[in-house]
Amino acid sequence: MIGDKLSGQDDAYREFRAARDLLLHHADDQDAARKAFRWPRPRHFNWATDWFDRIAEGNDRVALRIVGQGERTFQELSRRSDQVAGWLLSRGIRRGDVVMLLMDNRIELWELMLALIKIRAVVAPAFITISPEELRTRIGRAGARHVIADHRIASGLAVDGLGTRIIVGGERGGWIDFASSAGHEGGFVPEGPTEADEPLFYYFTSGSTSRPKLVVHTHVSYAIGHLASMYWNGLKPGDVHLNVSAPAWAKYPWSSLFGPWNAEATVVSMDSADATPQRLLQVLSTGEITSFCAPPSIWRALIRTGLPDGLPGLRHAVSVGEPLMGDVVEQVRGLAGVTVRNGFGQSEVTAMAGVTASSPADPVSMGYPLPGYELVVVGPGTDEPAQEGELCLNLADEPVGMMRGYLDPEDNATSHTPGGLYRTGDLARWDSDGSLVYLGRRKDVFEGPDGALIAPLELEHVLVLHPAVAELSVVPVSEGTAQVPKAYVVLSAGWNASRATAEALFAHLHKGLPEPKRVRFLEFVDDLPRTESGKVQREAVRRLRRSRSVEFAAGPPAALA
C-alpha cells in the first residue's frame, strides 16, 4: 500500500532526503551547511505520505513513546494513521476542512496528526485549558467545521454548530468515540497529489503583547521548514528526543513532530498532568534521553527541584520560546554537566537562528542564522542595515519555512516592508563575532525620562543574576509625566519580601546598569501572569493594579553604592 501511495512522488522524497542528509553531514560546521544548503521546493508534497510512510516501511524502531502510556514503532504509526485517515473521511472530514484540535500529549494525538495531514485537512490546535468564550472566538476566526477533543475538555464544550465532533478517551452524547476508529476496514487512498502551498496548520500566536494573530502554514513551510529546526537541535537518526510542549503551541511541531521525525529520531512526550519537574527528572535520569528541549521556565523548575550531578546519555539541551538567561545556563552546566543552548523562531517562521552544538556563540545569544535563512537588522522605520534595530527576515530567496501569511488580511499589512523584508517585531544587535543578541520585543521598549530607550529584557538579564530573584518582569509605569521601569519579582526560596531584599536588588542593579536604565520601583509577587504557552504576558503585567503600599522605591544612587 505504501508503495502505491508514493508512486509519482519519488522525486519529492529524494529532494527532501538529500537536503536532510546534507544538514546531517554538516552538523558540526554551520558555515558549510549555510553555504551548501538549498531548500527543497517540490511542487507536490505531503509529508505524512511522501516522507513518514517512506521511512516507516519495515521500520520497527520506536517512533513515539508517551511516558506512562506506551510506545509505537514507525511502521505501526504509519499503518494506524492510514486506518485513522480512512475513518476520518468516512466521518465526513474532507480536504481543506478546518479541524479544531484540543488534545493533550497522548498516542492518539500523533495518530490523528499524521492522518489529518494525509487527508489534507487544516489543523487548528487549541489549548485544552481554553475558556468557552475564547474557543468560540477561535472557531469563528479559523472557520472551523469539525472538532476533535480530549474527553477532559469535550464534556464542557458547547460546539453544537460544528459538523463532526470526535471525543478521545471517553464518551459523550452527540460525539463520536475515537476508539471506534480501531474497527475501520476501508483503507486509505490519497485524493491525488498534495499541492505544496495548500494550508496545513492554523496556529494562533501567543498573544503575549497583543491580540493573537492566526498564522497559516502550508504542507511545506512547516514540514520542510523544520529541517532548520532539526539542524539547530542537532538531532540525528537514532536520537531519543524529549520535548516539553502542549500541542496547541507552535513549538509542538518544531520539537515533537517534524524536527525529530525529519531526523528519524524517537519522540518522547508526557501528558501535561504527568510532566511535573520531579517526573521529568526521573525520565531524564534513565540515561535513555539523548536530547531535551524545554522553555526556560521548565529549566528553572528543574533547578529548583534539584538537578542531579550529571544526566547520563544527554547530548543536547536546548531552549526556545522565552529569553534564556545566563543564570540558567550556568546552573544547569554546573549541576548536570550539559550546556543549554538558545534558539530563535516564531509561530510565523521555523527556527531562524540558534546556537548549535558546535557554535562558539554565547549559549544565551540568538546564535547565528540557520541554513536557509538570511537575517538582517534594520534601523527604526527603514530597510537600511544597522548594528542594532529590528530583526528582519530577507524574503528575496523565498525561505520555505516562512508562513504563507496571516489568515486575517489586516494582520498582513504591517508584517512586511516595501523592501521585501518580514518584520519579526523583535529587536537585536550584531555582536562582534557575527552572532545575534536578543534585545526584546519592539512593543516592550519604551522611552525613559531622559529620552533614552529602555529595553526591559536588558534590565531583566542583570536583575535575574541576583540569587534572590527566581523570575521577574520589567514593565513601564507612570511617574509624573514620564515612564520609568518597574520590576515585578518572584523571590527565590529563603528570601523575604522586605525592604532589605529590595535594597539589595537596587544595589545590584546600580552596579550593573547606568542611571537612566535602572529600575525605579520593585514589587514582590507570588507569580507572574502567563500565556497558555507559558510565556510571561507582559501586557497583563502592565495592567496589574499598582499599589504604592506594596512597592519599594529606589533611593538616590549614593545611598545604594
Automatic annotation (TrEMBL):
One of its GO terms (molecular function) is fatty-acyl-CoA synthase activity. PANTHER family: ACYL-COA SYNTHETASE MEDIUM CHAIN FAMILY MEMBER 3 (PTHR43605:SF10), ACYL-COENZYME A SYNTHETASE (PTHR43605). Residues 55-407 form the AMP-dependent synthetase/ligase domain. GO terms for biological process: acyl-CoA metabolic process; fatty acid biosynthetic process. Pfam families: AMP-binding (PF00501), AMP-binding_C (PF13193). InterPro entries: AMP-bd_C, AMP-bd_C_sf, AMP-binding_CS, AMP-dep_synth/lig_dom, ANL_N_sf, Mitochondrial_ACSM. Gene3D superfamilies: 3.30.300.30, N-terminal domain of ligase-like. Keywords: ATP-binding, Ligase, Nucleotide-binding. Belongs to the ATP-dependent AMP-binding enzyme family. This is AMP-dependent synthetase. Residues 458-535 form the AMP-binding enzyme C-terminal domain. Transmembrane segments: none annotated.
